[in-house]
Prior knowledge:
With 220 residues, the chain is of the alpha+beta class. The chain has four helices and 13 strands. It has helices at 2-5, 64-74, 133-147, 182-192; strands at residues 11-22, 32-39, 45-46, 79-85, 100-103, 121-122, 151-152, 159-162, 167-172, 175-181, 202-203, 208-209, 212-213. The protein has a six-stranded antiparallel β-sheet with strand order 7-8-9-10-4-11. Strands 1, 2, 3, 5 and 6 form a five-stranded mixed β-sheet that branches.
Amino acid sequence: SEARRENRTVHFGRVFPILSKKNAELAPEFWKYKGRVVFEGSWVSTQDNLAAVYSEVSSGACHHSSARWIDAIARLPGCAGQDADACSAYAQSEFKGTETWVFLPPDQWPNSWQGMQNPVVKLRLSLYGHPKAGFYWEQYCKNALSKCGWKSVPSWESMYFHRGKQLFLSIYVDDFKMAGLAKNLSGAWRDLVKHLVLDPPRDLHGAVYLGQSQFNVEVD
């Protein structure tokens, strides 16, 4: 009613929990059960109960060739490679799109909501499932990388380099894969966690990135 009176557009959507099995296509030792709360991007309406329309905005792509490039660099003399996951990646970035209000599942209502009819709360973070969540996370991530001295590799989406530290970094949504001079890896990760929430890095041996197990390449 407020949006109609003020002649402005707002969106309404739903959030719900899901449970998935990550790396299900690989051997059982790579399986990981993951629970998250997501935005139902296929059902979003305006204040007039019309379907919300979004512009064609998408995040950058990551390529298998970039993953193999990182593997190869990690095998060079004096070099090494590591991988780290961003914790709840999308939700690290604030939602900056059209004002959006969401319906929560009844089992997530606080006691003070009992007796209310269709209460909503304002969406503050870029929840997975929103059509623009990936774009806002990517912009947030790029800004953090820039603060740490990383530059985009021309014509190669989701690939970055750090000239001073002699390192390359490939990013696939919430997976960060870095390789280059071994002596500079730990310092580079320390810089990144000042701006991004990341799990502790692990060596590439046995890690999975883009559905591939790492280090199955040979460098002559």
